[in-house]
Design brief:
- With about 325 residues, the protein is of the alpha+beta class.
- It folds into two domains: about 5-140, 2-Layer Sandwich (60s Ribosomal Protein L30, Chain: A), CATH 3.30.1330.10; about 155-315, PurM-like C-terminal domain (Phosphoribosyl-aminoimidazole Synthetase, Chain A, domain 2).
- The chain is about 35% helix and about 25% strand.
- Helix 2 packs parallel to helix 6 and helix 4 packs across helix 5 (about 190-205).
- The longest helix is centred in the N-terminal third of the chain and has 19 residues, at about 65-80.
- It is globular and about 65 Å long.
- The structure holds adenosine-5'-diphosphate (ADP) and magnesium ion (MG).
- Adenosine-5'-diphosphate binds near residues 1, 123 and 125.
C-alpha cells in the first residue's frame, strides 16, 4: 500500500466518524479483515451494489450525493430482506487522489450510517475509473425474513411510497435510463421545487428499513423496486410460482411526477422505470390490517395495487376491470 493510500484510508475512513463502534464489531478498519460477531440465533444478511461513474451517476455529480445514494441503495436491499443494518464495507476505485472529493464523499456516507447504526468496518482502494462498491451486512431473526418466494394466491400486493420518480429523476438529471426516450418530461424547464424533488428522489432514496423491520413477520414476500414494478414483482411471482393482477389506476404517484409527466409516461416510468427503491410486499388477507397499522404508525404511505392469483405473469387492469395490453418492451408504446 502506498503512503497516499494509507493516508486516504486514515483520514477519510479510519479516523472519520463513519468508523464508530457498535456492539459486536470486534475489529474494524486497520487489520487485514474486520471481525464481526453474529449475535446468537441470527442470520447474517449480505448484499452488495456497485455504482459506476458514467453509468449510474454523472462524472460531475456531487461526491456527497453519490455517497449517500450508494449506501441508500444497499440499505434498500437489506430492507427488502427485512434485515436490520449491522455494518458495511466499501471498495473505491478512484481516478485521482482528490482530497476535496474524498472529504465530501466520506461525509456523504455519514447520515445514513449513523441513522441506521451501520458503521464502516473495512474496504479497499484502487486506482482506476471512478466506481463505488458497497457491501452491507444486516441481521435477521430467522423467523423475521422477507423473501421472494412466499407469495400465495389471494394475497394483496402493496407498494410503499410513490412509483416512477426514479426514472423521471433520471430524465430530469439528464442521465439516460434503460428506458431511453420512453420517459419524457412535459417541459424540460421544471419548476425549482420539482427539480429539487427529483434530485432528492435519485440521490436520497429512502431505504425502507423501519417499515421492513416492523412488517418482516407479517408479509408473505417482498422485494425492493430497483428495476421497475413489472420486473421486480415478476421476480416475486417467478420465485413463488404464482401470477398477479395489477390495478394500474391504484399506482401511487408523487405530486411532482403528476405535474411534469403525461399519464402514459408516468405509468411507463412506474412499470418499467427503476431506481425507486420502494418495497413491493405481498400480504395475506389476515395480515392486511396489521401491515396497514404498522405503515400508519411510521407515517409511511403504502398502497394496495393488486392481488396474487394462481398461474403466472402479470395482468394489468384498468379502473373498469378491463385488461390493458402491455408490451414486454418499454420502448414500445402500449397505451
Ligand atoms: P490489505 O493491503 O491488507 O488488503 P488495505 O491496505 O487494502 O489492506 O487496507 C488496510 C485497512 O484499511 C483494512 O482494514 C481495510 O479494510 C481498510 N480500508 C481500505 N480501504 C478502505 C475504504 N475505502 N474504506 C474503509 N476501510 C478501508
Ligand atoms: Mg492484508
Amino acid at each position: 500500500m502506498s503512503q497516499a493510500e494509507f493516508e486516504i484510508i486514515r483520514r477519510y475512513f479510519k479516523e472519520s466518524a463513519l468508523n464508530f463502534s457498535r456492539q459486536g464489531i470486534e475489529k474494524s478498519i486497520g487489520d487485514d479483515g474486520a471481525l464481526i460477531k453474529i449475535p446468537p440465533d441470527h442470520l447474517l444478511c449480505m448484499s452488495m451494489d456497485a455504482l459506476v461513474a458514467g453509468v449510474h451517476f454523472p462524472y460531475s455529480a456531487d461526491a456527497a450525493m453519490i455517497a449517500n445514494r450508494a449506501l441508500a441503495v444497499n440499505l434498500s436491499d437489506l430492507a427488502a430482506m427485512g434485515a436490520e443494518p449491522y455494518c458495511f464495507t466499501l471498495a473505491l476505485v478512484l481516478p485521482e487522489n482528490n482530497p476535496a472529493w474524498l472529504e465530501k464523499f466520506s461525509g456523504g456516507l455519514l447520515r445514513l450510517a449513523q441513522r441506521f447504526n451501520c458503521p464502516l468496518v473495512g474496504g479497499d482502494i484502487t486506482e482506476g475509473p471512478l466506481s463505488i462498491v458497497i457491501q452491507v451486512h444486516g441481521l435477521n431473526q430467522p423467523d423475521r425474513v422477507i423473501r421472494r418466494d412466499g407469495a400465495k394466491p389471494g394475497d394483496s400486493v402493496y407498494v410503499s411510497g410513490c412509483l416512477g420518480d426514479g426514472a423521471i429523476a433520471l430524465a430530469s438529471i439528464g442521465i439516460r435510463s434503460h428506458l431511453g426516450e420512453a420517459v419524457e418530461l412535459i417541459d424540460e424547464t421544471l419548476p425549482d421545487a420539482c427539480r429539487e424533488y427529483f434530485r432528492a428522489a435519485y440521490y436520497e432514496p429512502e431505504p425502507r428499513i423501519e417499515l421492513a423491520g416492523r412488517c418482516n413477520a407479517l408479509v408473505s414476500a417482498g422485494i425492493d423496486i430497483s428495476d421497475g414494478l413489472l420486473g421486480d414483482l415478476g421476480h416475486i411471482l417467478n420465485a413463488s410460482g404464482v401470477g398477479a393482477e395489477l390495478n394500474v389506476h391504484r399506482l401511487p404517484y408523487s405530486e411532482s411526477s403528476t405535474c411534469c409527466t403525461s399519464p402514459e409516461n408516468r405509468l411507463r416510468a412506474a412499470l418499467y422505470g427503476g431506481d425507486d427503491y420502494e418495497l413491493c410486499l405481498t400480504v395475506s388477507p389476515q395480515q392486511i390490517s396489521a401491515l396497514e397499522s404498522v405503515a400508519e404508525k411510521l407515517n409511511t404511505r403504502i398502497s394496495c395495487i393488486g392481488e396474487i392469483v394462481e398461474g403466472d405473469g402479470i395482468v394489468c387492469l384498468d379502473e373498469a376491470g378491463q385488461v390493458i395490453e402491455l408490451t414486454d418492451h418499454p420502448y414500445e408504446h402500449f397505451l
